[in-house]
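Journal club prep, shared notes

We agreed each person brings one worked example of a sequence with its structure written out as tokens. Mine is Dethiobiotin synthase. I'm keeping it raw so we can talk through how to read the token line rather than staring at a rendered picture. Sequence first:
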Amino acid sequence: MNSVFVTGTDTDVGKTRISVALIELLQRQHQRVAAMKPIASGCEMTNVGLRNDDALKLAEQANVDLAYDVINPYAFAPAIAPHIAADQVDVAVELTVIKQRFDVIQQQADVVVVEGAGGWLVPINSTETIESLAVALNLPVILVVDIRLGCINHALLTVKAIESTGLKLQGWVANNFGRNAESIEIAETLTQRIWAPCLGYVPILEANESAADYLVLK
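Then the structure, token by token:
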């Protein structure tokens, strides 16, 4: 498997859980797997600087050891959209910086799992979005869909936007599958309308379960 960019239909749909699971699954295949969370809001101040919980989870699972500021070059305290958080602290998010960090990571790993922020068209500065970031890294995309009311429209719009860039949609993941009675019908609808394969149906998990057990790489 090549390096991948993990995006979601919205914020709080399980991108980190699926990214961690992808890292674990690749490690089971004896890969050296690195993680990257280029932009993160909602970071907490620690004695070593701002740290993001999602980025730390990715780093903990990865088996390529990297400095935190390489994994997460843009860390912001406010739990708001990245471009707003960056404006509040007078920081400009630059794709060239992220690309430089990514290139450093890629040289040390077989695979890099890059997790986006929010949804596909969330702004990261005055002119660019998460989509711009994925295009700059030129990575195939895995889409995480939280199986809930409204996800069909969000998923299909996101798929259409990904396809318009020319990037490969490697697959999509049905997250929190089985949470409601309509989960099967929703997943079937998406399967009929998304040409890329479904990489897994991940239910709500118990504390001792791993989402990696529900994924298949294609």
